[in-house]
Design a protein that fits this description.
Elements lengths: L2 E7 L6 H10 L6 E4 L2 E8 L2 E10 L2 E7 L5 H14 L7 H9 L1 H7 L13 H10 L5 H15 L1 E5 L2 E5 L3 H5 L3 H6 L4 H16 L4 H4 L4 H8 L7 H11 L11 H10 L8 H8 L6 H17 L2
Antiparallel strand pairs: 1-5, 2-3, 3-4, 4-5, 6-7
Length: 302
């Protein structure tokens, strides 16, 4: 199948292996795959279905895009998304300095000092995943995400391997309610998913416009839609749009991680979480990412 590839520069210390490990374990990574040391993800563009592969190549990352109509524009689009997903456009020097000087942050980051947050490829996808994750366990949320993609999304084959494609907003807005109920979606969750998808399809929910707003205004705009509470909106802003100043202080997992980093069993209070974040101004979302990652290390033990 036709393909284009290029090698993009990354910071010499960048830990791509940590990013791959995160994708392997993330309950949100139902469309991505890691084969050895290669990240793969398929999506739909105006040129059709395309498969993107990312792997280490010397001091950089090799980005390859395949598709029946893959061209230079396909590759440029893929590089842009890859840089977003792996947070490669951020100068992380100031964060690195914080890790060295702040003992709480140092414990949260652990040995992943040269890692960067892994974001979700598209803010609409992030919104759908966040709504699905509301008030359910992470394992069940992953099952629901996979079921939704199988029911409403597409499938593409590249060199004999099949890849699932995220459904478009309009397709999700029109998804059959009873079929979703048969997959164990609650009526409320179906209503929230379809309403949000319809808003995106009609342009009432514009992620590009949200990205230009101060995060508090963007939060208010998102939470004006039914079924999008503060936690869901924060996930979209942090992991969908990559806004670094978002601090989900009410999140229980985050507050537990902050307690562990201080030698307690926690969780710390929301007020305490907000007070701690003052020292991390401008990097709150990165701190939250590493805090959640630290919970996995804490569960596994040394």
């Amino acid at each position: 199948m036709p393909g284009r590839e290029t090698t993009i520069a990354v910071p010499a210390s960048y830990d791509f292996g940590a990013a791959l490990s995160f994708v392997r374990e993330s309950p949100s990574a139902v469309l991505e795959s890691v084969d050895g040391q290669t990240y793969r993800r398929a999506w739909r563009t105006e040129r059709g279905f395309e498969l993107v592969s990312v792997e280490r190549a010397g001091s950089g990352l090799r980005v390859r895009v395949e598709g029946s109509r893959a061209d230079a524009e396909s590759l440029a689009h893929a590089v842009q998304r890859v840089r977003h997903i792996f947070s490669l456009d951020i100068d992380a020097d100031a964060f690195q300095e914080l890790v060295v000087t702040d003992p709480i942050l140092a414990r949260l980051v652990g040995g992943d000092r040269h890692a960067r947050p892994v974001l979700i490829a598209d803010p609409f996808e992030c919104l759908v995943w966040a709504i699905i994750g509301q008030q359910v366990g992470v394992g069940f949320a992953r099952t629901l995400r996979q079921a939704l993609v199988h029911m409403v999304g597409h499938e593409a084959t590249f060199e004999g391997s099949r890849f699932r494609i995220m459904p478009e907003a309009q397709a999700l807005a029109c998804a059959d309610e009873e079929a979703l109920r048969a997959l164990h979606f609650s009526r409320a969750k179906i209503r929230y998913l379809r309403t949000a998808a319809q808003a995106v399809a009609e342009g009432a929910l514009d992620f590009a416009a949200l990205a230009t707003l101060p995060w508090a205004q963007a939060l208010a705009a998102l939470t004006s839609f039914p079924g999008i509470g503060p936690w869901t909106a924060e996930m979209v802003l942090m992991r969908g749009l990559g806004i670094r100043s978002v601090w989900p202080a009410a999140d229980l997992g985050l507050r537990r991680a902050l307690a562990h980093a201080q030698g307690g069993s926690g969780p710390v209070s929301e007020a305490c979480a907000r007070a701690l974040a003052v020292s991390w101004s401008g990097w709150e979302a990165w701190v939250a990412y590493f805090a959640w990652c630290s919970l996995t290390r804490h569960t596994k033990g040394p």
